């Protein structure tokens, strides 16, 4: 709003020799991801922030959900100050809101900052076991506010700075012999004689440097973190309460196969391509199959074939100045570790009861792990399984009624002390069809937030629909805590038994899970996010072809650039898949159909680039025939039915006079090198 040199004229006090202070916090830069306004001018109440919080959607959503279990002796009844995160503010302002709340609730500045922006620890950044336990305990209560960020903070007495866990924003500091500490986003902000400088360097990823203006002391990261880590017996609390599923052994035998295998494949919309082009490569190589980036089949909303609900969503990715991460090179800071369970009440008061959690190395549960979770006999761990099915005969009304009942049962379960809710579509029969798992988990997730009961339970999805990485990312992004893709495991088991892949089942399962995990790293990193805890519930997607009515009712109002399907269309597709499953062997020939999604098939999905269009173009180039090329363009532009959104558009055939168009030299004057950062 003002340049640095204008401040002294706008605030005359700054030029008065009698005006002195122990610290100054300055933010001098234009906005990059919001429009500059006075209400968003930095520094805020406690914080000045250079960077982006890539996980901001999820952080805001979980903070809203967490309000029901927040209480503070210092603040009293907090219902009067809700919402803690103001609406319509920038990511920096939201972070400042939460930081101020934590500090006003009694946490020290370093404690609040490390809770919000924890450092990563690995062989290149080894930390003590006590500090690891401190971070692990607090990761149960708060997901990281993740993204490239340099932060300066002050409460009037203490002033400090820190970097994000990846160190993706620059920050330099120097300390003079006279006791002045300067921390800034670059060197040379103020001039000092070399002889006056006692120490200088750069802030390290996740590290804090802080000054106490009252005592005239400077605190380094090691001392601050040591005091925090030793303030409570976090290691003992975790050791006595935390559960790791991989360390539990039971005598129960859990099957990998499913009953009515072929029928279940058709019910969940599997095609021959799903098995050959997706599951076999994932099960044998431990990685997603490599394919082209283009997709010349119709958007889900434009297709005349039944669609899985997942197909109506697209991933978002980092843009402007918030960079994506290379998940291979930055492997040290990437994490899929989760802690799932009920977040207890009064989480601002440290206590042992908050540690009753299940620790997962990644969010993909195999059948044995899910069975253990469903039968945990330890005190404080309660699991219930809720069916995500609806009555076939009732159609859309049955789907709506089933969703309403599901939400009410989930709410009742939380009230009864259930801290693990498994949403399962295993019990399908001729009269009950599966509710799409994405619709079920998102609806329950947002409903529990609305009634203030979301953080008191974990939502686990047991679904036969899940097979691709995108499916897993969507379910996690819309609130699932963990997933069990039981049909994918059943297919791998069938392939192993029929010797169609030359591996044992355990290896094939490990490879599949590894492929999904690698894929999740890739998707998270495209948004500049490094931990699954920050990605979960963040809804970093956009819908293409979802009606506003459905979006508001079930998906938290996620944006869709065009309108589209309602509950009627979702029900229709679900019933189509269900009917296919209950066809006779004679009708299906006992084989899965090749739907032609990845490769053109005459009776499969339409492709924009098909044998006709490709051969016409090839012939035109070989013959050098403009006439043949026009045949190609006529075929491409005059499709029988639209495939892309651009197929609904056409050129205006009456152009305006070129003399009425602004000259190029005038247009170019408005282009500047910093334009990408003007918000």
From TrEMBL:
Annotated signal sequence range = none
Q: What is its EC number?
A: 1.4.1.13
PROSITE patterns xrefs:
GATASE_TYPE_2
Segments spanning the bilayer are none
The record's section on SUPFAM superfamilies has: FMN-linked oxidoreductases, N-terminal nucleophile aminohydrolases (Ntn hydrolases)
Q: Top enzyme class of this protein?
A: oxidoreductase
Q: Name one GO biological process term.
A: glutamate biosynthetic process
Q: In which pathway does it act?
A: Amino-acid biosynthesis
Q: State its cofactor.
A: [3Fe-4S] cluster; FMN
Pfam families linked: GATase_2, Glu_syn_central, Glu_synthase
Q: Glutamine amidotransferase type-2 domain: which residues?
A: 1-214
Family, per the entry?
A: Belongs to the glutamate synthase family.
Please give the name of this protein: Glutamate synthase (NADPH/NADH) large chain
